[in-house]
Design brief:
The structure holds 2 protein chains of 2 kinds.
Chain A: H1 2-17, H2 21-24, H3 27-35, H4 37-68, H5 75-87, H6 90-100, H7 107-114, H8 130-155, H9 159-167, H10 172-183, H11 185-200, H12 204-209, H13 221-231, H14 235-261
Chain B: H1 7-10, H2 17-56, H3 60-63, H4 78-86, H5 89-120, H6 126-138, H7 141-154, H8 161-165, H9 172-183, H10 188-195, H11 200-211, H12 213-229, H13 232-237, H14 246-256, H15 261-292
Chain lengths: 267, 296
């Protein structure tokens, strides 16, 4: 029985050991990194993406879970529809999104034009609009997954608590505020951390839809690692940038962990 | 909590009947509204996917026509046939099946064994191993991309299917997920088997694995869809269209020829089909798997 244990521990050690900074990254890379405008730009884009997409996704996921936890018409269908984008490949569906947003033949562009929201350059080549466009796709992709996790949480809340609250005269908002929200706090913690980590690693839709453009406006850290490491073939420098990403993920996770830990509820 | 003084006013049941009638009508209106709301959300979420399916069957002239429409003006099967001859689509499909399939099967096996050891056996360094798994869970995989590629290149596996598969054979999330599930299983069965003289391997294969079926199915779906859909890793490992998986291959193809929309959509729809079918098949136990493993 020890063998597979050793095997998997060995494999996990291998992943871990392969990233010895001393072996792959000299200090020179880090020195360059600090002054490289591309890194600063990518870091800013990544943070903007994460700061906008994480709360919006979590909020929408909770709203959808609350709606779909009730007995509404065609509930199963709606749940599946919301979850389906998570199942399909963003690398593939992003191709469809790029077409839908095409300024000449794109269906969504056409509809938005009809509503008076006109983008002359097209959504993905307009420096102001490209980032919101990839954000929308990112949210569209993941919201269903977090919704399912929230649904699991909602279903674990004992109904007696709601009955008791109703007898005490609590309206829907009070019930949400005092029963649902605190009892979901563990779920919210997990979902927020997962969503934040995922947003810091945004790549697929950006690679397909904008390739980091226009004018590097959507170049995130992972996109930059890919460009520097595998397109410019500067593997050492790419690794250094990866570590900036790791540091970011680690710090953010710890901050969130600390924030939610104080508010953790056990029941 | 709520002020008890407010109680009489807020309880609907004690209200006189006309008011109750109103409440019921409001309730029905609310139900219709939420239902409509739900259907609109469903349609919006599915729009890109529906558009892909419909576009795959539109003739090229219809796709680039202005104004664009969702419904095809005419139908054709041309693209679905062309996709096999214009790009090495069969090859891409085969690569993806081998990659996602092998990773799913082996990863489930190794994850389950490691998780069993972590959940049920006592050995020195167990906590160290568990902490390492948690660290790996937090580590973004992009960080290991470059050294990993370098190591695989050093042993001559870069750009090959096995090279793509090997680093994915075990997965920190899988180990963690299954460990939590195994911890929740009753120990009685396992101890009964042990008293009967069953080996650890046998207990694992004949007691634990059957009990863990929903969790294994859920994790299997995760592994399968994740690897089937992954773009970055196959993009890095693939040398050309021949050695890529579907998402990477189609993204590469889009870079080379942006004009053949219908072809690309036909390929995309065919590429999405297996995961969607897999999901619809195990949908029930999937949601149950998430709910019962108590991911909280």
């Amino acid at each position: 029985m020890l063998w597979p244990m050793v095997q998997s521990a060995y494999l996990s050690f291998m992943d871990y050991n392969r990233i010895q900074p001393a072996q792959w990254v000299g200090l020179d890379n880090y020195r360059e990194l600090l002054t490289d405008p591309a890194v600063g730009n990518a870091l800013r884009n990544t943070l903007v993406y994460a700061v906008v997409v994480t709360p919006v996704t979590v909020g929408l996921a909770l709203a959808l879970a609350l709606l779909l936890n009730r007995a509404i018409f065609a509930r199963g269908l709606v749940r599946t529809a919301v979850f389906l984008p998570f199942i399909v490949s963003l690398g593939i569906v992003a191709i469809a999104w790029a077409f839908l947003l095409d300024p000449n033949i794109g269906l969504i562009s056409h509809w938005l034009d009809g509503l008076g929201i006109v983008s002359t350059q097209g959504w993905l080549s307009d420096p102001q609009l490209a980032m919101p466009a990839v954000m929308v796709v990112g949210i569209w992709k993941t919201v269903g997954f977090y919704m399912v996790m929230y649904l699991a949480g909602l279903q674990s809340i004992p109904t007696e608590l709601y009955e008791a609250a109703s007898l005490d005269g609590a309206g829907p908002w009070t019930r949400f505020r005092n029963v649902t929200w605190p009892l979901l706090s563990n779920q919210t913690m997990l979902i927020s951390i997962m969503a934040a980590i995922a947003t810091l690693q945004a790549f697929d839709q950006i690679y397909v839809m904008t390739h980091g453009g226009p004018y590097f406006r959507t170049e995130t850290l992972v996109m930059l690692v890919y460009r520097v490491g595998f397109e410019d073939l500067r593997l050492g420098y790419g690794s250094a940038i990866s570590w900036v990403l790791l540091l970011g993920v680690f710090v953010l996770s710890m901050l969130q962990w600390g924030y939610f830990r104080k508010r953790a509820v056990t029941y | 909590m709520a002020d008890t003084l407010l109680r009489p006013a807020a309880v609907d049941d004690e209200a006189p009947s006309p008011v109750r009638h109103d409440v019921r009508r409001l309730d029905r209106l609310w139900r219709v509204l939420t239902g409509v709301c739900g259907l609109v959300i469903a349609a919006a979420m599915l729009l890109p996917i529906i558009w892909m399916v419909l576009t795959a069957f539109k003739p090229e002239s219809d796709i680039v026509a202005f104004p664009p429409t969702l419904w095809p003006r005419a139908l054709t099967l041309e693209h679905v046939g062309d996709i096999w001859s214009q790009i090495p689509f069969a090859r891409l499909y085969g690569n993806t099946i081998v990659f996602a399939g092998a990773v799913t099967v082996f990863s489930l096996l190794f994850d389950a064994m490691a998780a069993y050891a972590l959940a049920r056996l006592d050995f020195r360094g167990k906590n160290v191993v568990f902490v390492l798994v948690l660290v790996l869970l937090m580590l973004p995989y992009q960080v290991t991309l470059i050294p990993l590629y370098d190591t695989l290149a050093a042993v001559g596996l870069a750009g090959t299917l096995p090279g793509m598969i090997v680093p994915r054979l075990t997965n920190a999330f899988g180990i963690f997920f299954l460990r939590q599930f195994f911890l929740s299983l009753p120990r009685d069965l396992e101890e009964a088997a042990r008293i009967d003289g069953a080996s650890e391997l046998r207990i694992f294969a004949q007691v634990i694995v059957p009990l863990a079926k929903p969790a294994l199915l859920t994790l299997g779906l995760f592994h399968f869809q994740y690897n089937w859909n992954d773009l970055l890793w196959p993009l890095i490992m693939a040398n050309d269209l021949e050695s890529a998986t579907l998402p990477a291959g189609l993204a590469m193809f889009m870079g080379q020829h942006v004009v053949e929309y219908g072809l690309l959509m036909a390929g995309s729809v065919l590429a999405l089909l297996p995961v969607v079918v897999f999901f619809l098949l195990i949908q029930r136990s999937f949601v149950a798997g998430i709910a019962t493993t108590g991911m909280k």
